[in-house]
Each structure stands twice: as structure tokens, then as C-alpha cells.
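Protein in question reproduced for absentees:

***
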Amino acid sequence: MVKSYTQLLFLYGFILYGCDLLDSTNVTYYEKYTDILPNAGVNSWLPENFPKESRNIYVKTDVETNELKVYFTLNNM
């Protein structure tokens, strides 16, 4: 009985691990805009008019759904 529970728990853990491998999202953090390398793939996702003064940039991309979410802060000038 204990052996079957152990096998079931192992199988459940393996399934959860496998689901994480199939995740098509990518989250990247940059402290400031200049930290984004010119040849980084993120540049192809950002619009041309993205504020160069932005800080605390979180970029979440999903290749499967072609989605982009960007969170950032701007300093008051």
C-alpha cells in the first residue's frame, strides 16, 4: 500500500515537472533600459517609441500566443 502511494507521488511530481518544461513564457528583468543588450531578442518585441528613461523593466513574452507584457517605471522630470 505504501509502495503504491510512493509511486503515485513520484508520478505526480514527474507530471508537474513536465508541465513546467512545456511553458512557452519567458520573463526577463532589467534595471534600466540601457541594460538591454542591442542584440537581445527583447529588442524585437519592444516598440520603437519605448521610453529610454524607463527603469525596473519586466518583460514577459509568450511565443505560443505571440503576447508581450511590459511593466516599467518612469522617473518624474
